[in-house]
Amino acid sequence: MDIQQVIEANRDNIIIYGPRCIGKSHFASHNMTWFDMTDQNDLDHYKQIMKSFGYPSSHFFSKNNSNKDIKIIILGAPFFIWKERIEHRKTLCQPQSLRSNQRRMRRLNYLAEFTVDMYKDSYVKSIRNLDELNFSYILVDNRNSYPILDELNFFKMLTDQTIKEHPLDKGRTVEKTSLNN
Asked: pTM of the prediction?
């Protein structure tokens, strides 16, 4: 089954899950095209299906949530791509005088300090929590054709340092020699 088949089969019971800046909105806008962003109900629903690791998602994914029919799509990308996305998001924040942007920048600066081990560990903890609570999920490489991966290949991809048609570098294949490049 590919990602489009999973989405169509679970259209009304999907949660898009991953760390901030992993590309949840981008993924949804390309794969869940039935949302009409000019319709307030669709916009509200769209916001409801996006969950980031940690609070407040930890309250949604709890023993008290009886909706175990939800299909959770966990998005991942290699660490260095995620770090690029964080830096890009920082450039989009408006003047620091706005409180919401100050909070957003603090969160982004916190994420920017993550090491590859911290990044991988955030996935391990989130997936183990879902396992303990018996939620069903799939692991998706959030690049290009969105392949569904098994756990071993998903974690390998998270630490991969090879660009394979990354949207910010279309058409080129570049080897990264260091996470700091």
From this structure: 0.80
Compute the average pLDDT of residues 51-57.
64
Rounded to a whole number of angstroms, the CA Rg of the chain reads 17
Tell me: the pLDDT tens digits for 86-138? 999 888 876 656 676 778 888 899 999 999 999 999 999 999 988 888 888 99
50 vs 118: which has the higher pLDDT: 118
DSSP per residue, 163-181: -SS-GGGTT---B-SSTT-
Residue 53 phi, psi dihedral angles, 5° rounding: -55, 145
Q: For residues 61 and 130, give the distance between their C-alpha atoms in angstroms, rounded to a whole number.
A: 7
Which residue from 12, 5, 19 is spatially nearest to 118, judged by alpha carbons?
A: 19
E strands within 19-90?
50-52, 71-76
What is the distance between the terminal CA atoms of the chain, rounded to a whole angstrom? 36
3-class DSSP state of 69: coil
Question: How many other C-beta atoms lie within 10 A of the C-beta of residue 174?
Answer: 12
Angle, helices 99-112/79-92, rounded to nearest 10 degrees: 160
Q: Can you tell me the distance from the alpha carbon of 46 to that of 28, in angstroms, rounded to the nearest whole number? A: 8
